[in-house]
Write a structure and sequence with these properties.
homodimer; 441 residues; alpha+beta; BirA Bifunctional Protein, domain 2; Rossmann fold; 2 domains; 33% helix
Amino acid sequence: MKLSNYFLPIIKEIPSDAKIKSHQLMIRTGMIRQSTSGIYSWLPLGFKILKKIENIVRDEQNKAGAIEMLMPTIQSAEIWKESGRYDSYGQEMLKINDRQKRELLYGPTNEELITQIFRDNIKSYKSLPLLLYHIQWKFRDEIRPRFGIMRCREFLMKDTYSFDLNEKNAEISYYKMMLSYLKTFERFNLKAIPVKADTGPIGGNLSHEFIILADTGESEIFTDSEIFNFETKLLEYNDVSLKKLSSHFSKFYSSTSDLHDVNKFQKQVPKKNQIIKKGVEVGHIFYFGQKYSKSLNAIVNTRESKSVNVYMGSYGIGVSRLVGAIIEANYNNNFMKWPKSVTPFQAVIINLGKDNDTVTIKANNLYQKLIHNKFDVILDDTDANPSSKFKNFELIGIPFQIIVGSKHHDDEFEFKELGKDSKIVNLDSLISILKEEYSNC
Amino acid sequence: MKLSNYFLPIIKEIPSDAKIKSHQLMIRTGMIRQSTSGIYSWLPLGFKILKKIENIVRDEQNKAGAIEMLMPTIQSAEIWKESGRYDSYGQEMLKINDRQKRELLYGPTNEELITQIFRDNIKSYKSLPLLLYHIQWKFRDEIRPRFGIMRCREFLMKDTYSFDLNEKNAEISYYKMMLSYLKTFERFNLKAIPVKADTGPIGGNLSHEFIILADTGESEIFTDSEIFNFETKLLEYNDVSLKKLSSHFSKFYSSTSDLHDVNKFQKQVPKKNQIIKKGVEVGHIFYFGQKYSKSLNAIVNTRESKSVNVYMGSYGIGVSRLVGAIIEANYNNNFMKWPKSVTPFQAVIINLGKDNDTVTIKANNLYQKLIHNKFDVILDDTDANPSSKFKNFELIGIPFQIIVGSKHHDDEFEFKELGKDSKIVNLDSLISILKEEYSNC
């Protein structure tokens, strides 16, 4: 992409209404613009990052055996009346009347709708276990939207629903999702831990929030530092791995403030291991058994021809919120560097030349060669002055810069990884370095 | 994918409320399920096809130089009041009040919002020309939703907006999009022609609908058969190509019924070339100049430091509707075969064996080998009887079947392209055939 053809409105000043780092950076680098309270447009830079995050979330869901589908944003009030949540959900539900005065709503979550789909289409134990997911925009009518896309009203969420024949199998599905979440967050270089949590309006018996530590987080967590000593790389979706996983995370105390038990915490966690910190919630998983399958009458026939209400769980990842969470975890002291898996561009070429001079030709040739080698790079070909080009791209946080100026020989480029010293490289080594750096993405 | 792990609810009977072919097929093959009037869930099979269509639309937009972003589904009423369309748009606009009684609406189209984004972020001619697009769910509160996803309320649309400094440049953007649309529809094997159309509630001076001929279509078109004699393959996004394009489609009479002029039609089109047919609208492009940039005050500074209201156009493709349109064009006499570019699976392996017998092992091995070779195949590993397996997959219309039974040698498979005779092939030639067949997708 050439910057002169792109749409990247940078703002020099920190916007006064943006209180947290991610909100500030997203506005300043033209990732998002608010269209009305708590509702945002994603401009090209932000959209690209959002899409990369979405694709990683999708990839890990598929690897865990979940099957993608898509439910609509607008739902009928009827099924919510059947489950009893139409009145109990509260004012965060955006209720709508259509032109025929039928009651609709903008889905804040999808337990009812997926249960209805299950009930209408699946009758036999042979179809179980089943994990269905979708990635869709949701709406919760926050009374006081703030912090940009971290606490907004319209947001992108991945939600998965599990269907099992009994509680034992349902627990396997639950830990499959827990493992898939840990693997997902690791791909963003985020250390997220599952913390025991209240089930809230979803309901149920068992629930974990996935929290990444960040001072600006709204959740407070209490846990044991040992909980972080856990590797998921070698774990697969089999019984042995899932048992390892569940036993590790049951062994150590962890809790959100809702469920926190001070005495238990003091007794169970050695003083030196006690962690009390703020964090950002990036995912939440629930096991609620037959709660919705009973109220909505979702029944399967067993091998023995008995009827059983299916056992269910639900599993959410805040896809749009992850954009903010990744920034909160990486943007410190005015320095940002995107993880390589989600950086909007793999490198920026900063052309220090003027119209049609040899430097500009060299920068253009390099751009063509990198595109030809399938790198996704942006060329700053504008007539802005050098210092403003450097400032803008340091602000954006693209991990690698290639600076093309008049100081170097024909086949030499200044290559700089953000936060490190620059070095002079030729085209071949430039290509090898980038290939190596992005080999795991 | 193994069918036993998939979610593919097939219905034997033709649903009584489904009047047109695409609606019938989509319900019967478990592609969609209605959740409430005019609002559908996309089950895995339908979702996969929808996603493939979306990705092709996206790819052709990118090739045309349009930049992707994403606007929200919910918009503030304010900007619609500024443009004057809040009252004039009519009852198809789904109006919403949030908990604070602020007026919102579910976007039926995005001219206002994109103009607001432009006005707030772009000030200089240097940023032009600009083509921005997004692919997002929209809502139009149809009084009588029908024909499944062909005339529904919540639907997926790609809409692009062009911004230019003057009318002449705006026309170039218009024909760029026209070319990109023709290229897009060709990738679905659809012959869509641009037909002069009324501008409706979008407004403006120039407008074409893209229509594919289909007896079940709701649009009636009048044109000259010569209009179809046009190749886009060699055309690129340059002045010469775009001139060829505009002169071809201006040369021949074409009109929707709204604008049809019987006398002109009779005079201009030789009797033998006259086409009066039903068709399905799959895209619509508009040039409306300064209509929204004036009402919403979107101004850029020219090179000469003058202020000019930007010249705009908008360009829509009905992404979810295309699923139906492709079926209408391909499903005849109870026979369906998906175009290779969008088939949900590239081939189906039909296992005629029983639990753990050698045939089943052979089918499983074949499945693993094809997956390993990066083919996206589905293995019917269920215990359904052979005739029902054949019936289901013929109904679905996956173009290639590989039948694994006891009749053949170890390294032999029965390979059948739908609508053709089957032949016996070994694994290597099977892989070469599939590679060859999908080489252009």
